[in-house]
Design a protein that fits this description.
Distance between the termini: 60 Å
Shape: globular
Order of helices and strands: HEHEHEHEEEHEEEEHH
Strand order of the largest sheet: 2-1-3-4-7-10
Oligomer: single chain
Strand content: 15-25%
Helix content: 25-40%
Number of strands: 10
Largest sheet: 6 strands, parallel
Radius of gyration: 23 Å
Length: 240
């Protein structure tokens, strides 16, 4: 009986480190795999496929297909028809809600390009989910408006530039500006942006229009409007 007890103690002493290591490996791996879901919101007349480089970068970093949401919104053929009111809102709102509901952490990260920046920010605010958005990355957005759209209500000639659009000082942008949207906010911009800077100036009130109130940092590249989305994919993933 005494020999059996000694044998049991020796077996337990041998197995205990292995059991601890196995538990550490299991829980450590589970914890590492738990991350925010990501919502990628394309720009005016864009497509989910516009995020191909970003999507592939996230997948290479271990994100599963079910952790990345790429809503398709708005008309693909009429850029001047799209704004931030009505049917354009629904796909983005649904994607944000689904991402939150299915997120391992209960939080999400959002990356928007161009008009997708302001549309995503709007939906986060309308849903009241600011506390569930960890990181928000705005790429080539027009948070302060587009001079090509004029100054509201003057020279406002279509939906994209109207009340719910991107004219400087539009009621929509005035409502949006300064509101909390995430725990961490970043902007990616260019002084060669052929959309934001098409009028010859990139600034509104002396500040680059792609910058977001309350941002933690802003990053500048020499790419054009679409190159900012396509070629900064590694930085985008780093910021999440």
């Amino acid at each position: 009986m005494k020999n059996n007890d000694n044998l049991s103690r020796r077996v337990l002493a041998f197995l205990q480190p292995l059991m601890v290591a196995a538990c550490f490996l299991f829980f450590g791996t589970a914890n590492a795999a738990c991350r925010d879901s990501v919502v990628l919101v394309h720009g005016n007349t864009g497509e989910p496929a516009d995020w191909a480089n970003t999507y592939n970068e996230l997948r290479s970093r271990g994100y599963g297909t079910g952790e990345i949401y790429r809503p398709s919104w708005g008309s693909k053929s009429c850029a001047s028809c799209n704004n931030h009111d009505g049917a354009e809102e629904t796909p983005v709102r649904n994607a944000i809600q689904s991402a939150i509901a299915n997120s391992c952490t209960g939080k999400i990260d959002v990356i928007g390009h161009s008009m997708g920046v302001t549309l995503a920010a709007q939906q986060i605010i309308k849903l009241g989910e600011q506390a569930r958005v960890d990181a928000f990355v705005g790429i080539a957005g027009a948070y302060r408006g587009l001079w090509s759209c004029g100054t509201y209500p003057y020279n406002v000639w279509n939906s994209t530039c109207g009340y719910y659009g991107l004219s400087v000082s539009s009621p929509f942008l005035d409502w949006l500006y300064g509101k909390s949207i995430a725990g961490r906010i970043y902007s990616i911009k260019s002084w060669s942006d052929q959309i934001v800077c098409v009028s010859g100036t990139c600034t509104v009130g002396g500040v680059h229009s792609s910058r977001i109130a309350g941002e933690r940092a802003t990053y500048t590249f020499g790419y054009g409007h679409f190159g900012l989305q396509e070629y900064t994919y590694s930085l985008q993933a780093d910021l999440l």
